[in-house]
Amino acid sequence: MDTKALIADKRFLEGKGRLSDCIEDYPEGIILPVDKPLRWTSADVIRKIKWLATRHFHKKNLKVGHAGTLDPLATGVLLVCIGKATKLAESLQKEGKEYVAGISFGATTPSYDLEKPVDRLYPTTNVSPESILDILPSFLGEQEQVAPLFSAKSVDGVRAYELARKQYRQAGKGKTDVFEDFDHGAAGILNRQIITISEIELLSFNPSGHEPMVYEENSFNSRINVEDTSSLNLPHAEIRVACSKGTYLRALARDLGEALGSGAHLDSLRRTKSGGFTVETALKVEEAATLLSAL
User: Fold this and answer.
1) C-alpha span between 181 and 171 (Å, rounded)
2) Looking at the DSSP assignment, which residues form a beta bridge with residue 278?
C-alpha cells in the first residue's frame, strides 16, 4: 500500500543509523518491519518496541501496535506501527502474506505445531514428494478453513484457546506424555472462514525428518514451550504459501495431512512477506533498538 509514513527498515538503518528523537518529525508515523524472533509473542515485540520508543521520543502515551499477529513459534515479518501509523494497522493487516512452512507428516499435536507434544501417530505410506505435488493444486484459490482450536477465535464470547486448554487438561489427566483423548474434531465448533491461497509450492522434501529447532535458552519468553519431534524421523516438507489475511498455516498443515490419509503438524513457520514488506529488509529486534537508541 502507498503510505506517507516513514518506513524504518534495514535500508533506513544503513542510511540514517537512528531515528530523530522528535516524533513530530514523522507526522504520518513510523512503520517498523521487525523480524520476530522464535518464542516471542507478537505482544512481546510490541512491549519491547514501545518501551524503547517512549524513552527515545520522550512520550509516555505514544501509540504502538502491530499489523497481523504471528504465533510464538513463528518468525519473520511483523509490522510495528508507531504514532499515527497505528491508524494504518488495519489496512496493512488486510494485505496478502507469504510464508515458508515446515510440515511433519505422520503425527499430530493438539496445537498443530510444536507448542504441544505429539498426541497421535499416523501411517505415512501415501506421503511422498509426488503425492504432495499432486494434492497441492487442490488447495489453491478461495476456500473455507476451520481455524485451530488453539487460536484466538471467539466461541460464544470465549476465546477458543481457553476451551482448548480446558479440554487438553482433561485429556491429560493421569497420563504423562500422550494425550490420545484430545478431541481434534472439536475444532468444528469454530465457524468456517473464507481464505484465499494464491500460490503454493513444494520447496523440499526429506523422508527422514527435520533438523531440531534451534533457539536460545535465554530467549525472551521462556514460558513458550517447544517440543522436539525430530527424533521421530517423520517425513518433512518445506512449502511456500502466498495467502490472504486470516489464513492459519497450522490448519493448512492439518488439512494437508488429512488429504494424504495421514496426520501432520507445523515444525517451523516463517513469514517472508507481509504486503510489500519482506523479511530481507526487516530489522532484528536489536537493530530496531539501535534505531531507537540515544545519541
Assistant:
1) 5
2) 273
- Which SS3 state, helix, strand or coil, does residue 186 take? helix
Q: pLDDT tens across 197-219, in order? A: 999 999 999 999 988 776 655 45
pTM of the entire structure?
A: 0.86
Catalytic pick from 9, 35, 44, 71? 71
Catalytic (active site) residue 71? yes
Q: Nearest to residue 143, comparing CAs of 98, 198, 80?
A: 198
Q: What letter does residue 257 receive in the DSSP assignment?
A: H
CB 9 within 8 A of CB 33: yes
Identify the burial level of 268 via C-beta atoms within 10 angstroms of its C-beta, where 0-12 means exposed, 13-18 middle and 19 or more buried: buried
Q: CA 132, CA 202: separation in Å to the nearest integer?
A: 8
Residue 205 and residue 54: Cα distance in Å, rounded?
A: 46
Task: Give dist(CA 187, CA 82) in Å, integer.
Answer: 36
Provide the β-strand partners of residue 196: 142
